[in-house]
Design goal:
Helix content is 6%, strand content 58%. The protein contains one helix and eight strands, in the order H-E-E-E-E-E-E-E-E. The mean pLDDT is 87.
Amino acid sequence: MFGMGKKHSPSVGVRLIGEWRAETARGEVKSAIHAIYNGDGSFSVRTRVTGGHETKPRTQVGRYRIETIDKTRFRLVTIDENGTPMGSSVRKFLDDNTMLNEMGQTRFQRVIRSPVQA
C-alpha cells in the first residue's frame, strides 16, 4: 500500500505533505525541482534543467511510500502512474521546512504546507 506505508512514522508522513523546491548545480548544469506530496499517497515532481544540455521541463507523477529507517531518517519510495518502480531515496528533516535528500545532498525547502488529506 502506498502512502504512509506499514512502517510509517505519522510525524514523517504528515511533515512530508505539501510543496517543496530544490535547486542543484553540477558544473554549468543547474536543476530546479518542484515536488508536491499529497496526503493520499500521490505525488508530482517537475524538474527543469538549464545550462549544458538544456531540456524541456519533465514532470513525473505517481504514488509514494515512506519507510522509517531510524529516528531521523526515512526512505521515500516512488512508483509511476503505471505502477513501475521509479526508485527510492533516503531523506531526513533538518527542521520543519527543510528536507535533505542524502544522495547528492539535495536540500528541499518547503513552499506550502498542505492540509492532511484522507
